[in-house]
Write a structure and sequence with these properties.
CATH topology of one domain: TIM Barrel
Structural class: alpha/beta
Number of strands: 8
Largest sheet: 8 strands, mixed
Strand content: 15-25%
CATH class of one domain: Alpha Beta
Shape: globular
Distance between the termini: 40 Å
Strand order of the largest sheet: 1-2-3-4-5-6-7-8
Radius of gyration: 17 Å
CATH superfamily of one domain: Aldolase class I
Number of helices: 8
Order of helices and strands: EEHHEHEHEHHEHEHE
């Protein structure tokens, strides 16, 4: 892999070692800049807006190769990674090291997901479901993206894929009620994993979102219990 340069890749950041972005695995984390959603509570606003931090793709790939005996996986996050035209090239280069790959996605590109899963370029998919699958509700949660048919297609693609996966929802009180979280769990009935994520007001795309008080631990646990009948495994992160 040494010497390979992935041209045009929009790197928004690189974390050499993380224990929190892939449960149970020592990983590194690549952020690809740019997103087609504008979720008001987004905690990576600069990356979502396409800001690149100057990381060199060649050096990142060299680091991954040199540390492939220490690392267990590579997480590709964003922004929205499926928008990057050189995603396939990056995944192929990482696969040469023998490391596992996890991708985080908003589910807006089911065709890309189907392609990279079919090509065995990813081993774990984590898809954010922003709101109940109703156009107006989804648009409110994402800053205007209301194509719930596409989101539904991504859900089905992932559930039928045979790769490990999870669906996850950040519970931002400005948009989602506890009943909405149950509705989302119901929409992925039979899924392997559903994660309820605490909203973090410290850094947000919309400054007004940072003034919203997160749900309490008690409320999050109640959401967890309400979702349990619909999916095989429910977890809560961020409490």
């Amino acid at each position: 892999m040494t010497g390979v340069h992935v041209e045009w890749m929009k790197i928004g950041g690189f974390v050499k070692t993380t224990l929190s972005d892939w449960d149970g695995k020592v990983s590194c984390l690549i952020f690809l800049a740019g997103c087609n959603f504008s979720c008001p509570y987004c905690h990576n606003p600069e990356i979502a807006n396409g800001v690149c931090d100057g990381e060199d793709e060649k050096k990142i790939l060299e680091y991954i190769e040199e540390n492939s005996d220490f690392l267990e996986g590579v997480v590709i996050s964003g922004g929205e990674p499926t928008l990057d035209r050189d995603l396939y090239k990056l995944l192929r280069e990482i696969k040469k090291t023998g490391l596992l790959i996890k991708i985080d996605t908003n589910g807006s590109s089911p065709e890309v997901l189907d392609d990279i899963i079919g090509a065995r370029l990813v081993d774990y998919v984590a898809m954010d479901i922003k709101a109940p699958l109703h156009s107006e509700r989804y648009g409110a949660a994402t800053g205007g993206y209301g194509n719930v048919e596409t989101i539904g297609k991504s859900i089905r693609t992932i559930m039928d894929s045979g790769v490990e996966y999870e669906f996850r929802t950040t519970v931002y009180p400005g948009v989602l009620s506890p009943d909405d979280v149950t509705d989302i769990a119901r929409s992925v009935r039979g899924a392997e994993r559903f994660c309820i994520q605490q909203f973090r007001p410290k850094v947000t795309l919309d400054p007004e979102a940072g003034k919203v008080k997160p749900y309490s631990v008690k409320e999050l646990r109640a959401m967890h219990d309400a979702a349990k009948p619909y999916v095989k495994r429910v977890s809560v992160r961020g409490i």
